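Box 3.1 A note on notation
Throughout this textbook, protein chains are presented in two layers. The first layer is the amino acid sequence; the second is a token string describing backbone geometry. Keep the layers aligned when reading.
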Amino acid sequence: MPTEQKLGPRGRTVREAAAVVGIVLLVNGSVRGSDDLWPFGPMSQYAMVVADDESIILTRISAVTDAGTTVDVPLDVEGAGIARAEIEARVGEIVKNPALLQQVADGWASKHPDKPKYVSLQLVQDTTQLVHGRVAGPPTPRVLTTWKVG
């Protein structure tokens, strides 16, 4: 049967230092509030409550393809290679610099070479109004910016 050994001063110091570093990283991520810092930051897209008479905003990207169709870009790793949370976290940056949407078109083209290519992209926010906790009608879309794919 193995004998129990006590943790020495060096082992205790290493464990305490690791705990302090972990706590500092968690506090920093929580204060800065960015999902980019995950796992040492909040997953804010899951940390919200919507009141019964508020609105819900969904951010999406709409694309016109070289086949002439309009589609919603699948915002996940398999789709365009970028997650919806990444887009939502950078809405302000994208509005200021619509050229950032080029990465979405490039991601789609590299992952789906056999599918129609995107020729223009729109960053859109759909607002759904709740009344007494129920959807009060279809979402209202608002185009935030547009990018012609280069």
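The two ends are 69 Å apart (CA to CA). The CA atoms of residues 6 and 12 lie 10 Å apart.
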